[in-house]
Write a structure and sequence with these properties.
CATH topology: Metallo-beta-lactamase, Chain A
Radius of gyration: 16 Å
Oligomer: single chain
CATH superfamily: Ribonuclease Z/Hydroxyacylglutathione hydrolase-like
Largest sheet: 8 strands, mixed
Order of helices and strands: EEEHHEHEHHHEEEEHHEHEE
Distance between the termini: 16 Å
Bound molecules: zinc ion
Number of domains: 1
Strand content: 25-35%
Strand order of the largest sheet: 6-5-4-3-2-1-12-11
């Protein structure tokens, strides 16, 4: 059986904001810190990079604190972004997909519904949604498509042994988690399905949700797949850096 190691890579932050950002409509008067991450899975057929961080131009535009280009953070794990064979994009927000162009040789895996929404649905052109994406994302994905590197997926697809793509809509219309067999059992990189572990523990979403009923169903689904609560990995929880062994600056091993 193929087994995978999962590393979290912090490429920006921490930032401090009201806790209401990560807990929908509550705790406005409390502050909390979060950070910006992507992940790298090492195993047979890998490395598999999950999400691409933010493009350097967008990081400047949005004044992202302590930003480092994701390819530089990845190099500290000994992985060359230019040689990565698989990039899984959980969703197409600017802080998760904007750096896709840093992986010029990778097959880029996206859920079919996520691609359809951002490419074809006129609602995605409205200001609210445009604020959540950026131009480098569109450019990188269209290039991947033109070069035959874009792979659109349905729920349950298995890109490599020991890996499964899991549809988990709610944060975005086509968010896709990645389940991986590990030495500790099945782990799930849920990305922004839960911004923090509190979202899973409290059964309460972040403030960035496009479909609440769908989100609640996705929570149940991802919880049922992960071998333990700690193996359901959130998108922006600073505990990923604080509670796990650091293998290089900004890089921790989650499992
Ligand atoms: Zn997001």
């Amino acid at each position: 059986m193929s087994q995978w190691e999962i590393y979290a890579l912090m490429y920006a932050g921490p930032v401090e904001t009201s806790r209401a950002v990560t807990l929908w409509n509550r705790d406005f008067d409390q502050n909390h810190q979060r950070a910006y991450y992507f992940w790298c899975l090492l195993g047979e057929g890998g490395p598999v990079v999950v999400d691409a961080g933010t493009h350097p131009d967008t990081a400047v535009e949005r004044e992202l604190p302590s930003y480092e280009s994701p390819d530089q953070v990845l190099a500290r794990l000994g992985v060359d972004a230019a040689a990565v064979p698989h990039l899984v994009l959980t969703h197409l927000h600017w802080d998760h997909a904007g750096g896709a162009g840093l992986f010029p040789g990778a097959q880029v895996h996206v859920h079919r519904e996520e691609w359809r929404f951002w490419q074809e649905d006129p609602v995605s052109r409205r200001a609210l949604f445009q604020w959540l994406r950026d131009d480098p994302t569109g450019r990188a994905l269209e290039r991947a498509r033109d070069e035959g590197r874009l792979v659109l997926h349905d729920d349950g697809d298995a890109p490599l042994p020991g890996l499964e793509l899991v549809a988990a809509p709610g944060h975005t219309p086509g968010l896709m988690a990645l389940a991986a067999d590990t030495a500790q059992g099945r782990a799930v990189v849920g990305s922004d399905c839960g911004h923090t572990w509190d979202n899973y523990a409290l059964d309460w979403p972040s403030s960035f949700i496009c479909d609440l009923p769908a989100w609640l169903r996705s929570m149940d689904k991802l919880k049922s797949l992960a071998a333990s609560e700690r193996l359901l990995i959130p998108g922006h929880d600073l505990a990923m850096s604080q509670d796990f062994p650091e293998v290089a600056p900004g890089v921790t091993r989650l499992v």
